[in-house]
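User: I'm curious whether this sequence folds into something compact or stays loose and floppy. Could you predict its structure so I can see for myself?
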Amino acid sequence: MKYQKLVLVSMCLVLAACGEAVTPESADGADESAVSMERANPLLADWHTPFGVPPFDLIESTDYLPALRAGMQQQMAEVDAIVANPEQPTFANTIVALDVSGGTLGSISRPFFAVNGAHADDVIRETAKTVAPELAAHRDNISLNGGLFERVDAVFRQREKLALNGEDLRLLEETHKRFVRAGANLELTAQTRLREINSELATLSQQFQENLLNETNEFEFLVTDRADLGDLPGSLVSLAAEEAKRRGHDCDECWLFTLQRPSINPFLQYSPNREMRRKLFDGYAMRGDNDNENDNKEIVQRTVQLRTERAALMGYETHAHFVLSNNMAETPANVYGLLNQIWTPALRVSKEEREALQAMMHEDGIDDALRGWDWRYYTEKVRKAKYDFDEDALRPYFEVNAVRDGVFAVSTELFGITFRQLEDVPTWHPDQQVFEILDADGSHLAILYMDFFARETKRGGAWKNALRLQSNVDGFVTPIITNNFNFPAPTEVSPSLLSLGEAETLFHEFGHALHGMFSDVTYQSLAGTQTPRDFVEFPSQIMENWMREPEVLQMFAKHYQTGEEIPQGTIDKIGASAKFNQGFATVEYMAAVYLDMAYHTLDSTEAVEPRAFESSAMTDIGLIEEIIPRYRSGYFSHIFSGGYSAGYYSYIWSEVLDADGFQAFKETSLLDKDTAARYRKEVLSKGGTAPGMELYVNFRGREPEIGPLLEKRGLN
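Assistant: Here's the prediction. I'll summarize afterward.
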């Protein structure tokens, strides 16, 4: 309770500073008459909501900035109290006290950044730009607080005498490491420069994402001839027609396509109009590189320079050396060692695929060379010819709620958990669905928000957020998790029907959700997905494996109109074509990995021109011109605004783990409860309380092997 008292006193100071007449008694509700009659900021008030979820129905966009500033002020008061403590530093009064500090800031910042990613208006975006450098400075004010580090270091130096349990020792070691990696040991001049770098990087990151969102939203491609849509599935035809109307095009028959993946990818797959495919492909590939107000090249250049300078300040050869020293991979050499084992066979297979596509193109009477905008179109033609399999014919069996129920059913079979949809919970958008997750014994486990559909206020991709982290310092706090997607929205004539890849994405993100929901640790900084980047994707990627299994498809894949189960013949075709086009999929992803590593293994702060640098990096690895990196520099938000710098390799690193780990189930049975219980106990519940490889070995009984990955992708 001593931590709660500290928070209460700090909150009173903060609210008083913000103009609220609040006393310790009124904070507990005992003296409500002392509270101002003006509208209180709901983010700083008690949340009288089901399960303590954020009161999204009461929050206005203008509430976030003052609340975030109040939260920062409160945490600094808590940190000052730790530093001023006259008692000798102990694990409890320093390490634990620091870990629980910032509770109010976390309860505000996590919903804010979730909304900023999924449903940002102009006020939210401006708040994000304003607060980014302020939050960076706030983090530096804690990490570079000399008095605080003295106390942390004092506890760390006596760690062998403290008889700490495994998780306590892990928290101590990780806390100390975090300070050192943040520059606590640097000279004052170097710390001052580090603060400047961190502030500028925070601003650049936010600007990169804003430019990308603007460029994506401003692009539109109008089609007025139905023939140019080819065999585009009816649900997507309707979606494109509705998008044209929504954007103000007054035409009887027209269809509008955007650079959102649910829009552009199907058009590239099905439109027979090669010139239109080129224009849409170029629109996507040139985002952030059009020499306009949304151009990201200068941001990329400056970001790379600053990261290189910061790494040198910290005593590291490159930014990649700095980042990887805290990951499973440890060094750039180890990353390249894995990449090079996969790149050579993947490139070979992609060239074989290119020849097949080129031959099909010639059969169409086109003598020109295959281009990037042709790849998806002719891939579909070859797939149909080779496997008699139209992937988009699966969409009627993958209605979004059916796929959701499928991953729920798998989780129930594996772990015994159940799901109860809630209708009385505030959300940030009407499309959101909210579920209470119940453990096998019927007890409350977590709350899960699911936000499925693409919109202009949402950034691209799919991701997981935590609105509240699990912890157990002053009682067990259950997690609140969100899954976010960019699936095609329902239309007047059709529900949201997913592609095979989109269905896998739903399973993937739910794997992240399980990691957050099953967390069973003491300290929030070690909870759930708070793990190294190259381990965090393991629980998400292993979940994808169940999606294509015949036994699982039969559980949920039913035609949305007729209720007919997916035919066995179709399931067989899914299996037979699983390795089809894997050369392309592997190469386009790995090209982006190599690009990430190329930028972040630079050891000089000399400016690089992104367009030329990217071209040179791709030439160095022998990338064929028909394939571009999955993310080019101008829209590579994973590394320039998403926390994956020198870490985009994590997906393939984790795929080695997931391909090998899934064999543990295949060796027993697909839905084996004992194996699932071991996986939950040794991996999902542990968060970051032990190194990733240790967790994996505890589950699997040995270190992973690369063979299952090469077999899975057809690269052996």
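Summary: Residues 2-143+145-181 form a domain with the Neurolysin; domain 3 fold (CATH 1.10.1370.40). The CA atoms of residues 99 and 525 lie 7 Å apart.
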